[in-house]
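# nightly structure sweep
# worker-07 picked up a monomer target from the shared queue
# config: single-sequence mode, recycle default, output format = structure tokens
# input follows
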Amino acid sequence: MKSLKRLFAGSIAALALGSGLALAQSYPSKPVRLVVPFPPGGAVDLIARLIQPKMSESLGQPFLIENRPGAAGNVGVESVARGAPDGHTLVINTNGQAISPAIFKKLSWDATDFTPVSQLVASNLILISSPKLQAATVAEFIAIAKAKPGVLNYGGTGVGNPLHLTMELLKLTAGIDIVAVHYQGDAPLFTAMMSGQVEAAVVPLSTALPLVKSGKIRALAMPGARRVSVLPDVPTIAETLPGFESSSWQGLFVPSRTPRDAVDALYRGVVKALAARE
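# output follows
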């Protein structure tokens, strides 16, 4: 009897091991859907398109980018939370992935619905203003805002995302009253700023840098802890408001219950994609 039990246990273990090996060898077995919960052209979309070809090359299947913007990224995130936990549906998101469950009362998902694969980048943000606004420094911007409470506005790309919360932190720290105007992505926000419809905004450095260097928008300060090498003359907000600091990151997530072998394969693909020098 004991020998039969041992035989049965051994058979179950062999089957489990065999299924795990089969998954590791066959994953991915079809094209992988990579959801970007923001419009094309933004910082998250840019990172997705940078890693996409290397991920496809590494894992041997196409990675298909699907932009699903809306509700500060929550629309796209929800679609992945409901996806099959087989490693063929992913989402790339900012630290809004961790923030949203804390500030939105009615979400159909929470942090436990996802397994993290990897952080992709630590993102620098930048405080910018329209060239039409007579403010070249944070101090000048604060002075104008205090002289005209409730008159100036700032652009955003979603309620509750890191960019919006950084501007709200600046309002609170500086004691100013400026009005939020939200846009469907970085591109329309930049267009509005260049025309003078929007006076200020906190945006990803990666998307703002070409416009800053061309003089189409003005760099006021960096919300992060230190200056950045690509704009060494732009001070931090903390140089005017000591202690101020805000930053962001982007990461890759899969639905919870995705097999560990698939998560590990994706992680290895990310490592290769980020290590590529092209």
